[in-house]
UniProtKB/TrEMBL annotation:
<dbReference type="InterPro" id="IPR006311">
    <property type="entry name" value="TAT_signal"/>
</dbReference>
<keyword id="KW-0961">Cell wall biogenesis/degradation</keyword>
<keyword id="KW-0133">Cell shape</keyword>
<dbReference type="InterPro" id="IPR038063">
    <property type="entry name" value="Transpep_catalytic_dom"/>
</dbReference>
<comment type="pathway">
    <text>Cell wall biogenesis; peptidoglycan biosynthesis.</text>
</comment>
<dbReference type="Pfam" id="PF17964">
    <property type="entry name" value="Big_10"/>
</dbReference>
<feature type="domain" description="L,D-TPase catalytic">
    <location>
        <begin position="251"/>
        <end position="382"/>
    </location>
</feature>
<keyword id="KW-0808">Transferase</keyword>
<feature type="active site" description="Nucleophile">
    <location>
        <position position="350"/>
    </location>
</feature>
<dbReference type="InterPro" id="IPR041280">
    <property type="entry name" value="Big_10"/>
</dbReference>
<dbReference type="InterPro" id="IPR050979">
    <property type="entry name" value="LD-transpeptidase"/>
</dbReference>
<protein>
    <submittedName>
        <fullName>Ig-like domain-containing protein</fullName>
    </submittedName>
</protein>
<dbReference type="Pfam" id="PF03734">
    <property type="entry name" value="YkuD"/>
</dbReference>
<feature type="active site" description="Proton donor/acceptor">
    <location>
        <position position="331"/>
    </location>
</feature>
<dbReference type="InterPro" id="IPR005490">
    <property type="entry name" value="LD_TPept_cat_dom"/>
</dbReference>
<keyword id="KW-0012">Acyltransferase</keyword>
<keyword id="KW-0573">Peptidoglycan synthesis</keyword>
Amino acid sequence: MGDSHISNRSGQSEKWSRRGILAALGAVPAVTLLTGCGSGSADASQGSSATASVRAVTRKAVVKVTPADGTTKADFTAPVEVTVTDGTLASVKVTGNDGSTLDGSYNKARTTWTSSRNPYSGTKYTVAVTAQGGTEETAAFTTKSPGETFVGYFTPEAGSTSGVGMPVSINFTHAVSDRAAVQKAITVTAEPAVEIVGHWFSDTRLDFRPETYWAPGTTITLSLRLRDVQGTDGVYGVQSKDVTFHIGRRQISTVDLATKKMVVERGGETIATYPVSGGDTDHTTWSGIMVISERFKQTRMESSTVGLGDEYDISDVPHAQRLTTSGTFVHGNYWAADSVFGSRNTSHGCVGLHDAKGANDSSVDGYKFYESSLLGDVVIVKNSGERTVEPSNGLNGWNLSWSDWEAGSAVH
């Protein structure tokens, strides 16, 4: 384009370039301005920023798994954690070689995933991770095995049907110091539902019961989640299982040793009354609420096993049903005269009913009561001249008030 000619006030023309005109108008493009110290132009700066943004977008996500890949003796008392930098987590799957899986949750930013429970001991785990942009990572680790373990042996037996007085009683093979941790790992539920509370009788025994006897027909489920629970320093549980038992009809038998009779009620109605003989004045029978914990058609009874020297040794006691750990039974008696029952208390502390040798005579009271009974049936003894049995002596926690029972729980 040619030069422009502009007249000045004297009428003379001056020759101006296009650049000069633009400068005079203050419209010189920024792109033509020079900057100091090697800085580029504004357009060049914008191009550099765009390049950096592309690099940031395409940077590969970095995944970290804890315990680390290849660990052979990983801790099993802490959760598994997966983190990512320069990205987000799309999916995390943790699978054990025992077929178990670990569920977990993400943080709000989906940069961290944490398992909802700890891994099991002695197990190999594979962790498969997918992060933003399709990044895939796989890690594997093996947890160490516990040095020492414990289990809980439970009563009643799985699938059994018991009387309404049967508690759920668990005896541990190792003393428990962290009672709260162990009790939290055990739940007992009932259908129909009822509040059930645990009570520690010792550091090796934990019983569960409702406030009153179970309702007839109740189904009880015991859930043991003791695997890798630390019962005491360095000693861990190994069980993870559910067992179910059932409650049958309601039978309550009351032994009055003043009248020397036992009245058997079922469903609130009297179904039988038997003459009995209890402990004599030197060997009084425990009083209180007792629960049948073992049943034997025939068994041997020796006085030496209950601290009574050599006073008796009977090899074939018929229809024996245990009421206490210390040796109280309700059982058949064939060696005493028939006239004793209902008239005198002559035993060494047991409750005896007339019976026949061999335990096969269905006409005698010992046989009849045995056949009508279940494990878990309640037998109440009164007017025996003896104090109430210790609640821990057998399955006899019903002798504790509900408030005292609750006070024995480690979980509040």
